[in-house]
Amino acid sequence: MADMKPKGQLKNPGKVIKRLMSYLRGYNLRFVVVLICIVISAAAGALSAMFIQILIDGYIVPLTMASNPDFTGLLRMILIMGAALLTGALAGLAYNRIMVSISQGIQKKIRDEMFEHMQTLPISYFDTHSHGDIMSHYTNDIDTLRQMMSISLPQMFSSVITIITVFVAMITMNLYLTLFVLLFVGIMLFITKKIASRSAVNFVAQQKEIGEVNGFIEEMINGQKVVKVFCHEEEAKKDFDARNEALCKSATAANTYANILMPIMNNLGNLQYVLVAIVGGALAFFGLSPVTAGIIASFLQLSKNFTRPFSEISQQLNAVIMALAGAERIFELMDEKSEEDNGYVTLVNARYDESDNITEAEECTEMWGWKHPHGDGTLTYTKLTGNIMMNEVDFAYVPGKTVLHNVSLTANPGQKIAFVGATGAGKTTITNLINRFYDIEDGKIRYDGININKIKKPDLRRSLGVVLQDVHLFTGTVMENIRYGKLDATDEECIAAAKLANAHDFISMLPEGYNTVITGDGGQLSQGQCQLISIARAAVADPPVMILDEATSSIDTRTEALVQKGMDGLMYGRTVFVIAHRLSTVRNSDKIMVLDLGRVIECGTHDELISRKGKYYQLYTGAFELS
Amino acid sequence: MIKKLAGSIREYKTASLLAPLFVTLEVIMEVLLPFLMADLIDNGVNKGDMEHILKTGAMLSGVAFAALIFGIFSGKFAAEASAGFAKNLRHDLYYRIQEYSFSNIDKFSTSSLVTRMTTDVTNVQNSYQMIIRIAVRAPFMMIFAMIMSFNVNAGLSMVFVAFIPVIALALGLVIKFAHPVFKRVFRIYDKLNNVVQENLHGIRVVKSFVREEHETKKFRDISDEIYRDFSKAEKIVAFNMPIMQICVYACILIISWFASRQIVFGTMTQGELVSMMTYVMQILMSLMFISMIMVMITLSKASAERIAEVLNEEIDLRNTDSPLNEIKDGSISFENVSFSYAKDENKLCLKDINLKINSGETIGIIGGTGSSKSSLVQLIPRLYDATKGIVRVGGEDVRDYDIEALRNSVAMVLQKNVLFSGTIKENLRWGNKDASDEEIEKTCRLAQAEDFIQRMPEKYDTYIEQGGTNVSGGQRQRLCIARALLKKPKILILDDSTSAVDTKTDKLIRRAFLEEIPDTTKIIIAQRISSVEEADKIIVMDKGMVSAFGTHKELLESSRIYREVYESQKKGSDENG
Prior knowledge:
The complex is a heterodimer. Chain A is about 60% helix and about 15% strand. By secondary structure, chain A is an alpha/beta fold. In chain A, the strands form 4 sheets. In chain A, strands 10-13-14-7-15-16 form a 6-stranded mixed sheet, with helices on both faces. A 4-stranded antiparallel sheet of chain A has the order 2-1-3-4, with no helix packed on it. By secondary structure, chain B is α/β, with parallel strands linked by helices. Chain B folds into 2 domains: about 300 residues, ABC transporter transmembrane region fold; about 170 residues, P-loop containing nucleotide triphosphate hydrolases (Rossmann fold). Chain B is built from 19 helices and 12 strands. In chain B, helix 16 links the parallel strand 9 and strand 10. The longest helix of chain B has about 90 residues. Chain B starts with a helix and ends with a helix. At the A-B interface, helix 2, helix 3, helix 5, helix 6 and helix 7 of A face helix 2, helix 3, helix 5, helix 6 and helix 7 of B.
């Protein structure tokens, strides 16, 4: 990112607030109720703060003067007050509870929208953003929003109302004293701002150090076994201590500023109390203003109630800034551009009509077709056969750094096409282009004669089965993991797929068989077993075209041979792309493409390539010199 | 548990004690304030006595200033103590984990270790700061304010004394109902994080199976659960404030009724009423804080327990009292060795292994998926201890060696290997931190890594990203091999370490081993027959047992499994001529 502003500093708070406000839509009525309740509750708060003045000036003083005090008026006032305060407390309860619904609802909405949007982002987004960082949007950033919405905002709002109420009361009582209090509050705010900004700097530093320490911990603990094997413990400790020390330093500083803010605000309030008494006394003494002892006493109490909400607001300010920064980061993710999909050709169930033309079928048929709408409103149907053609394709992950040059190939339905070449030759890249994880720079890729840019991405991908070298399973039972390939597959279908992938035997040996719960990284299973499950997952999807990217690299060759047999049965009549280091895996391919540095350097069947005595021959004989 | 964690306070004990001490002083000052204020009003303002105003004002300012100073100190010490405590906790955890054996690490998953060191420590840090500041402040405030209010007017004080049990009960109920819901919320949060994490890692799978909607639904379901439970918990907590308010208001009104009568009849002053009201607020606010702290502490209790678990974990691999530091040679023998990860004789993954390997030999290991090849070799550098039997290196039981000395002589390239963020050179120096540039280059040539390193823009100073994501799988494996070679080990173990390297390079690496480090015992686990067929001897593993042990030729004759593997890899070339 070009923006070098440190984390925690807001770029455009106004826009973030406006966007957050837009989430209130749908809560209009409830939000109005909340506002009314906050006003009532804050008014009750202000009332209770001024209650003593009312009591002293309105009742106690006159009653003391009276020769025969009558307490019924006082009792009535106390009862009315009680009713008012009770209403305030209940209003507080009401707005708190409604606010919980609103803030949790908004959070849920943001969370869901964020995840849904994330699913639409192109693969390149995930390549370039650290997973830890994305995760923190769902945890820290959302949590700061919760804090702000359910705690900080209502409190700040009610503080503001208290300030206004008390201010009006003060100004009606005495202008000069009010001005003096205002002056003092100005000084208080100035000091708060100074401390708060110092605190913010340290806070940002602390967040950064936390990120660094956590990153270090994550990396080292994940590589802990390597640390042990290399007896690297002492060095690891030293590196850790240095980072840990730095974090401790900035955490101490940040917390110190946060901790001393309250005592400073409180005691400045106390100091103000004294000064108001002195100024008031002086005013009365010199008769500059009509000030009575009663007014000063009341004013003292008021002024205290005036400054308290200021310190309350200042306490919440940090939380608000953090939340806005969090919201900004969330919105950044939500504003990332989705994968573009301008395709309009869709995949449908197909059948032959009376005149032997392909047409769309309502029911599930064994046949699939591409539904191709044209500009003039007509529809044509093409049978899905699995013919894939690449024509002079160039590709670059980063513009200017071309990694595939002029790649052309034709895969006819039912053919097995293999990609062979050193690491970094571009084998995986080619398969990533077929399912449009990335878009090509130049050239054309056609699927059954249709430019793949015209095919809707989900339909394109549904027609391709992919098994990757890095297996990713999801937490859940083995059965659920296999069913991931086809969500409406029956248990029988899943088991049949597992048998095909030669995974049935070991799954049956697991403690709970197909119902054994596995965790995402497949912890309890060996790498090879995970691969077998992922093959079963692709098999159950039963796609017309399969891409196997080092799908069997961790499976021993004997098991692989068995898997291969099953797969060959499955793959009969289907197009398969295979990437493998093990040449034994690719030998029976219809076409072997040898890649080097992003170019196809040789292409042909095993026999053709062997007789050509080129690069493939070298690789092959390198592997089987003895034979 | 508390005792265990308290052991990490150490040098921050002083700060941890000074913080509450200053808090106490601060509280005393704050409690004095309403008393002085009452005096200021009664004897100064109400009587128009300017001199008294100035005198009491000066005293008030002095007390406020003292409170300010004490407050600043308490804040400072509390910050110091809690940040320091957190630092020591992280330190202790990290050092403890460094001592962990492989089976200790297996027991906790790495991701749970990471959470314990990060989130859990932060939770405990926050609670600790709360405890030494507010947990001290609140009760003291309550006690002092109580004393002062009794001093002012004992009769009226009885009013809020009567209210205290009511509030305590109400807040107790709130905690009782909210706590289990909160606990559940945190568990669901773990689930949510897991879904997001798996989604991120497996995004290619999600996209190729077009399962975006399925994933979104999965996420939404959990998100819904959080919404429901979190709302429920917060709605219960929402009772806290109104209960407090109602009690405070009730106290104020009742007191003001009686106080008004007393003032009117001259047994109480206006100033005393004002200070009484302040004490009411102080006492009830402290109760509020106490309830808040109790919620916080119960919530962070789970974190504290998780931290204590790591610290209390028994480390199951230790040096003997007088360990051997010298490893004679690279010979290895297994004598009746059985092994189980669970230390359970009914769940053995290695059964009755007997092997003899001479120093300097090259040994290949072949076997099916899950045949315990890795388990076998992990016993040699004592990453795990054999459950039964003896593993010997250089003629001595591996348990008699100093672990570090043993592992420095037995270099192992793990199957799931990692590089760390840092330059290539820094990564390689893990093997030998004093290695010269020439040595490093020589080793890289041996591991066939020199070529691609030279092609990189910064060569040996190229920065490797976390997890080694900016080098390909084959390059990563070669760097890992070079790193192990730099140790100049007596035994080198490659656990399927060339699976992503093409066959030609693989062959070059093996040839270099043969020529450059002939005295090192080399153990190579591989899937490819070609990787092991030149070995002096080959072990065929099957279901945790040595099924055959011999040369390529011998095994082709005697081992059915070996022959099958061989055929499966060779078949095509025979058929095709």
